[in-house]
Amino acid sequence: MSQNDNLFKKIMRGEIPSSKVYEDDYVYAFNDISPTAPTHILIIPKAPLDSLNELTEDDAVTAGRLLVTAAKLAKQLGFAQDGYRCVINTGANAGQTVPHLHLHLLAGREFGWPAG
Ligand code: 5GP
After folding, report:
1. Does residue 94 lie in a domain region?
2. Bond prior to 114 in cis (omega within 30° of 0)
3. Among 16, 57, 74, 96, which residue has the least CB neighbours within 10 Å?
């Protein structure tokens, strides 16, 4: 699948509907279609990055914006104090299924550790 055709690119272009939570010049955030927590938001960069493996020094601002957005949404949506989890699955062993970098922002319940 080419970068232009991946699922999350289509969501960002509006070709596949999504429940948008936030958008700016760097990132797009939307609700996961199969939530694993009461809040399950995906935050993706607009830059064409397949996974964390693609990141270089030039992507430092983009990468930082993923975390800044997670922290901002946690405050805005009211779960910053109770706690939340950010996950970036990378590659087959981590269970990455969509080849576009994405951060899972999970909240609304307690999470176990170590991760399964
Ligand atoms: P991964 O397993 O790659 O870390 O996460 C991919 C996520 O994308 C999964 O949590 C999955 O539920 C979500 N997802 C897959 N297809 C769609 C879709 O069409 N719309 C939305 N909103 N989420 C999707």
Report:
1. yes
2. yes
3. 57
